[in-house]
Amino acid sequence: MRLLLPALVAILVMPAAMAGDLLDAVKQRGTLKIALEGTYPPFNFRDAKQQLTGFDVEIATEIAKRMKLKPEFTTAEWSGLLAGLQSGKFDIVVNQVGVTEQRKAVFDFSQPYTYSSAQLIVRKNETRNFKSLADLNGKKLGVGQGSNYADMAKAVAGVQVKTYPGAPEYLQDLAIGRLDAALNDSLLIPFAIKQAKLPLKAGAPVGEVATMAIPFAKGNPQFKAAIDQALTGMKADGTFKKISVKWFGIDVAKAPAAKK
């Protein structure tokens, strides 16, 4: 689940009437320009052959296919993804973008396609029972820089929040004792721990269930309908569930009960 930089909210959105519906533009071009980080496994990353892969990559590729378009992927750091979308560099961002009121003021969104919650990560031999962020009062917590989890942690008094470029860095610090816990997406954690090969484990879920969807420029109802139609079809014929189970072992399109 990712965070929109506050500065973006102040940027005015071009009226749709000035540009026509985005669906016309992508159909004429024949490609769907898709942006993601490419460094966010298991959602999107490069394999041993440096090919983009992951859950979001497969979902985005299938959406483009059902729209009869060729997927055209661009990778960028998280801080540049939504800014690039705002400036028209991409058509969509498929990178686990959380739906928030702040973002809805700037972008339109597809129907939800992923649900998850925040979850703690601790050392495998941890004996302290951290059940909530409040239990980390006076403790050091690692989070990704610019993420929703950073804001979530900083809102809890007494937690010493340390930010990192990504999961590999804070997982390493957690394993060697520089942190007491870390915080990330409940769907990402099992994969991240497996890849890191460090003595860590998933801790307690914290916070409410978050909804992820695909953002695009405001004022494009035909484009939104085409994206939603692709997602609805994937869910109806089992394609979405097949991709989801491949990467997570569950259907992430089904919202779990909120945990606090």
Automatic annotation (TrEMBL):
PROSITE patterns noted in UniProt: SBP_BACTERIAL_3
GO function term, MF aspect, one: ligand-gated monoatomic ion channel activity
Signal peptide: 1-19
Span of domain Ionotropic glutamate receptor C-terminal: 31-250
Keyword rRNA-binding: no
Keywords of this entry: Signal
Location in or out of the cell: Cell envelope
SMART domains: PBPb, PBPe
Solute-binding protein family 3/N-terminal domain ranges (all copies): 31-251
UniProt name for this protein: Transporter substrate-binding domain-containing protein
Annotated organism of origin: Chromobacterium paludis
